[in-house]
Amino acid sequence: MNVSFTKKQEEYISKQIESGDFQNASEVVRDALRLHEVYRHRVIQDLKAEIEKGWNDVESSRSVKDIIQAKKNTISNV
């Protein structure tokens, strides 16, 4: 499998290897993919929980736009 990286990504990978935390680029990429999987799972679970709360709640003062914006703010803070 071939993967292309931007110059910035290549520099980041190199810095991670230089730090001694990783031995090679493959380790950095595998770690990033593991973190992405955990992050994605968390976002999906959070969204499902919010949907469930919405279905079970009689009345909410938040609009759909408010909920989406709150989720975007949470994601940008991670």
TrEMBL record:
<dbReference type="InterPro" id="IPR010985">
    <property type="entry name" value="Ribbon_hlx_hlx"/>
</dbReference>
<dbReference type="InterPro" id="IPR022789">
    <property type="entry name" value="ParD"/>
</dbReference>
<comment type="similarity">
    <text>Belongs to the ParD antitoxin family.</text>
</comment>
<protein>
    <submittedName>
        <fullName>Antitoxin ParD1/3/4</fullName>
    </submittedName>
</protein>
<keyword id="KW-1277">Toxin-antitoxin system</keyword>
<dbReference type="Pfam" id="PF03693">
    <property type="entry name" value="ParD_antitoxin"/>
</dbReference>
<dbReference type="InterPro" id="IPR038296">
    <property type="entry name" value="ParD_sf"/>
</dbReference>
